[in-house]
Amino acid sequence: MHAWEVVRPGPVEGEPLRFVERPIPVPGADELLVHVRACGVCRTDLHVSERDLPVRRPRVTPGHEVVGVVAATGEDVLDHAVGDRVGVAWLRRTDGTCGYCARGSENLCPASEYTGWDADGGYAEYTTVPAAFAYRLPGEVDDVALAPLLCAGIIGYRALLRAALPDAGRLGLYGFGGSAHLCAQLALAQGATVHVLTRDPAARRLALELGAASARGAYDEPPEPLDSAILFAPVGDLVPVALRALDRGGILSVAGIHLSDTPPLRYESDLFYEKELRSVTSNTRRDGRDFLALAARHGVRATTHTYPLSEALRALRDLKAGRFDGAAVLVNDFPART
Ligand SMILES: [Zn+2]
Ligand SMILES: [Zn+2]
């Protein structure tokens, strides 16, 4: 099969990834072999390719927003069958036994493993996933539209939960890429007023089309104080900017796995009056299931730009350069081989 591997992590303007031929992977006893149909391109793939995240598996295949079809099952798998459509997401495995797992915070499990970082992901014709971490997908939505929901969507949902937006609250979104544009749709469907703050004019237009009440530059002030804000841009300089935009008691959640250093915070202007700054670490499977159900109910749809699987590097370059709004999705246009 064809697969991308990160051979020399570094700037994507160079050639950190290579498109190679590899054997089709063999699923473990508790795993599924998945024929990839579509795989979203997430900013984390860029961080893995450029070594903003440390190398955890040499020559890893990135990709953790996979929509595919079960092509084979390991001998211990009872609850999935060949032909089922499934989603493969970032959280790949946890120990299920530690204190965090026991209290329902499996996203904090110290033994957790991640698709496209610890194990090969979906920038390939086939991938594997532990059956217990595969998502069942609603039948009616197409593969490409679903793929970005599996990380961008789920993480945006968790960031929204962490931001604890009150009913009919005022929500600020800093940065407006794949994750934010899905989060905005859900927040709007639930009755929020959404203000978008981002440098990119095309993203500001998309925000207004989707129903945002305002769209301004990333460092601008929103038109009203915010009850909650989510920082999607990986830009630490925006942390105090967003904190100052909060009303008393407001909460800022930082959605990204990687953030440039934050400047010093000033207690009085940035944190006093019980403002809170929260991080977001991965997600639980429950977040994933809840979000996929809400997205189906409210018709949350990704704005997508497709690339053939063979052009993943171009997709990553375009993501880095901000050359599209919404989310990029790789489409596997090779015929099935099994
Ligand atoms: Zn655990
Ligand atoms: Zn992701």
UniProtKB/TrEMBL annotation:
Reaction(s) catalysed by this chain's protein: a secondary alcohol + NAD(+) = a ketone + NADH + H(+); a primary alcohol + NAD(+) = an aldehyde + NADH + H(+)
Stored PROSITE patterns: ADH_ZINC
CDD domains (UniProt xref): CAD2
Signal peptide as annotated in the record: none
Top-level EC class as recorded in UniProt: oxidoreductase
Keywords linked to the UniProt accession: Metal-binding, NAD, Oxidoreductase, Zinc
One Pfam match: ADH_N
Known cofactor(s): Zn(2+)
GO terms, molecular function: alcohol dehydrogenase (NAD+) activity; zinc ion binding
EC numbers on record: 1.1.1.1
SUPFAM superfamilies listed in its UniProt record: GroES-like, NAD(P)-binding Rossmann-fold domains
Highest taxon, organism lineage: Bacteria
GO cellular component: cytoplasm
Ranges of residues in domain Enoyl reductase (ER): 14-330
Record family assignment: Belongs to the zinc-containing alcohol dehydrogenase family.
PANTHER family documented for this protein: ALCOHOL DEHYDROGENASE 1-RELATED (PTHR42940), VACUOLAR PROTEIN SORTING-ASSOCIATED PROTEIN 11 (PTHR42940:SF8)
Protein known as: Probable alcohol dehydrogenase AdhA
Species annotation: Streptomyces olivochromogenes
